[in-house]
Write a structure and sequence with these properties.
Length: 58
């Protein structure tokens, strides 16, 4: 039986929001997360050095 907190086998949709810096991506994502309960936010992966204040896994 699938554990309800285990989403590894759950199908869904992927929405990629991409735009230049300052275009409003963060604002759009914040509003989507407030209005849609089922939306999940991915953790970015990058090979660059961490920015000031960035924490691994967030």
């Amino acid at each position: 039986m699938l554990n309800e907190t285990d989403n590894t086998n759950r199908l869904g949709n992927l929405l990629v929001i991409t735009a230049p810096s300052g275009a409003g991506k963060s604002t759009l994502v914040k509003r989507l997360r407030l209005s849609l309960d089922e939306i999940a936010f991915s953790i970015s992966y990058t090979t660059r050095s961490p920015r000031i204040g960035e924490k691994n896994g967030r």
